[in-house]
Amino acid sequence: MINQHYKEAFERIPNERRERILEVGITEFSSKGYENANINTIARNAGISIGLMYKYFSTKEDLFLTCISRGMHILEEALEEIMISHDKILIKAEKLIRATCELSKKNKNYIKLYNEITAEKDGERAVSLAREIESQTSKIYITSIAQALASGDVRQDLDPRLFAFFLDNLLTTLQFSFTCEYYKERLRIYTGVDTDRLNDDEIVNQLLKFIESAFTFEKDNK
């Protein structure tokens, strides 16, 4: 949990300085991981003294959590706008895929940071981060899919919680495929082309077909 006193002090500084610190922090944490990231390096690259940095953050972990929160806000804002609409579930899915492509390209360092988090070696911190990051996202997905189920918009034998989990896994992997070398190479192996050579429309169309079959095809057991 971020120290409230330091959080308020950080939020009072000019927006330009605040954004600069977070941008540099996300870059440092995403490239080096939590343990190897250096708060002195972040302060220097952000153009402030280490003393001033500790007026904004009581610990390196506070800065780390603040960087994560910033990225979470960007992604959750886009997600909520799409999922709370009255669109059919497949329209929402199409918008989600397009938003995932766009946001992954615009916020590469945050996506890399998210990937670093998934490899977190500290078990206690990993559990805490998973709850912090995934709790709100999972609720949005589950609620939307449950509403689609109730309205008859999707196959009636699905489990909203598991389908939400599977859908999020697909989109998370897609995010990583734009930013993280291992996942970018996986995409090259499967498709024969680099991510930046794939047309967004092609990605949207093919993944939407995959999702559509999952949400709408119900096996006839008769």
Features:
222 residues, 78% helix
Question: Can you characterise this structure?
Answer:
With 222 residues, the chain is mostly helical. It is 78% helix and 0% strand. The chain is built from eleven helices and no strands. It has helices spanning 4-11, 15-36, 39-46, 50-56, 60-83, 89-106, 108-118, 123-150, 160-179, 181-191, 200-216. Helix 2 crosses helix 5, helix 5 runs parallel beside helix 8 (123-150) and helix 8 (123-150) crosses helix 9 (160-179). The chain is globular. It starts with a helix and ends in a 6-residue tail after the last helix. The mean pLDDT is 88.
Sum this structure up briefly.
The protein is mostly helical and 222 residues long.
Question: Radius of gyration from the CA trace?
Answer: 20 Å
Order of helices and strands: HHHHHHHHHHH
Q: Kindly, what is the distance between the CA atoms of the first and last residues, rounded to a whole number of angstroms?
A: 53 Å
Relative strand content:
under 5%
Percentage of residues assigned to helices: over 70%
Total DSSP E strands: 0
